[in-house]
């Protein structure tokens, strides 16, 4: 591990933390994968436990001296494939020039993006799965992952228009559980409902439809393999997806409230169908 003191946030050696947006990081090594930035010791530790390869750290000087960060860096040395992993240390007045750094608890880490599993492999090894169809808000994606980890969901599948679970805000809201719950994307344009059916899953769409049954209905709990679909916050699940689902279900509401936010709805659904 190579500890390097920097005095200027424009130092090119820390450009990966300062000069790239999320989309640019995603394609950083194109065509051979990308990079994600993890923040807070808890999230970084879970990324390491997932087996993600660290590339560099950016640490506030006082945080660097803390026991939590020192323990984290000792684990990082063992996990890194680099002989000289760069750990860049800067004073607070330097590092605070990065927007949002005050949310990181003093440490950022750059990782190579791991290879995601094939959908078929995850479906074979799972029985209760969630599908995020075009869920574009990273805060909602992160909250769904946290609920999934807590309430017994085996895996999460996303369509390509959904927010990236490794996006900094998503991973932070998820408390790093996006590195614990197995997940992957369905191929763009694929008929994923057919894929689920071919893998012997019963498909449940969460949607406000006249034919929807209550989430507590006994028939929803009679299947060994269940896939629950959540839709985008604005328009919900696509009509074709709903039409090809085995069940359409709702969470009964009171006081003329029609529905919950997708993240809150996922927690209720996971508790009812997976966590009990």
Describe this structure in words.
- The protein has 276 residues and is of the alpha/beta class.
- The chain folds into 2 domains: 111 residues, Ribosomal protein L30/S12 (60s Ribosomal Protein L30, Chain: A); 157 residues, SPOUT methyltransferase, trefoil knot domain (Alpha/beta knot), CATH 3.40.1280.10.
- The chain is 33% helix and 21% strand.
- It is built from 12 helices and 12 strands.
- The strands form 2 sheets. The chain has a 7-stranded parallel β-sheet with strand order 8-7-6-11-9-12-10, with helices on both faces.
- The model has no long low-confidence stretch (mean pLDDT 89).
- InterPro entries: Alpha/beta_knot_MTases, Ribosomal_eL30-like_sf, rRNA_Methyltransferase, SpoU_MeTrfase, tRNA_m1G_MTases_N.
The 3D shape can be described as elongated
Largest sheet, described in full? 7 strands, parallel
Query: How many helices?
Result: 12
Q: Write the CATH fold name of the largest domain.
A: Alpha/beta knot
The CATH architecture classification of the largest domain is 3-Layer(aba) Sandwich
Using the coordinates above, name the CATH class of the largest domain: Alpha Beta
Beta strand %: 15-25%
**How many distinct domains?**
2
What is the C-alpha radius of gyration, as a whole number of Å?
A: 21 Å
What is the CATH homologous superfamily assignment of the largest domain?
SPOUT methyltransferase, trefoil knot domain
Mean pLDDT: 89
* DSSP summary, beta strand count: 12
InterPro entries: Alpha/beta_knot_MTases (IPR029028), Ribosomal_eL30-like_sf (IPR029064), rRNA_Methyltransferase (IPR051259), SpoU_MeTrfase (IPR001537), tRNA_m1G_MTases_N (IPR029026)
GO biological process, one term: methylation
Protein name: RNA methyltransferase
Keywords: Methyltransferase, Transferase
């Amino acid at each position: 591990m190579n500890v390097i003191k920097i005095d200027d946030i424009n130092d090119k050696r820390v450009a990966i933390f300062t000069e790239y947006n999320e989309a640019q990081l995603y394609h950083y090594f194109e065509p051979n994968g990308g990079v994600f930035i993890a923040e807070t010791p808890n999230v970084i530790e879970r990324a390491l436990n997932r087996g993600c390869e660290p590339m560099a750290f950016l640490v506030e000087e006082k945080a660097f001296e803390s026991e939590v960060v020192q323990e984290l860096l000792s684990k990082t040395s063992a996990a890194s494939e680099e002989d000289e992993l760069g750990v860049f240390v800067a004073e607070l007045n330097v590092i605070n020039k990065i927007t949002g750094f005050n949310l990181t608890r003093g440490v950022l880490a750059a990782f190579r993006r791991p290879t995601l599993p094939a959908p078929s492999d995850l479906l074979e090894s799972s029985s209760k799965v969630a599908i995020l169809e075009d869920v574009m808000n990273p805060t909602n994606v992160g909250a769904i992952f946290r609920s999934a980890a807590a309430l017994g969901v085996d895996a999460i599948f996303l369509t390509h228009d959904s927010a990236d679970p490794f996006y900094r805000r998503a991973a932070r809201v998820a408390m790093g559980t996006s590195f614990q719950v197995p997940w992957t994307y369905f191929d763009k344009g694929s008929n994923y409902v057919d894929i689920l059916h071919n893998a012997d899953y019963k498909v449940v769409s969460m949607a406000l439809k006249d034919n929807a049954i209550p989430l507590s209905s006994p028939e929803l709990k009679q299947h060994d393999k269940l896939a629950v679909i959540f839709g985008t916050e604005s328009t919900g699940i696509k009509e074709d997806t709903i039409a090809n689902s085995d069940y359409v279900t709702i969470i009964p509401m009171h006081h003329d409230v029609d529905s919950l936010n997708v993240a809150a709805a996922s927690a209720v659904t996971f508790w009812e169908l997976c966590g009990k």
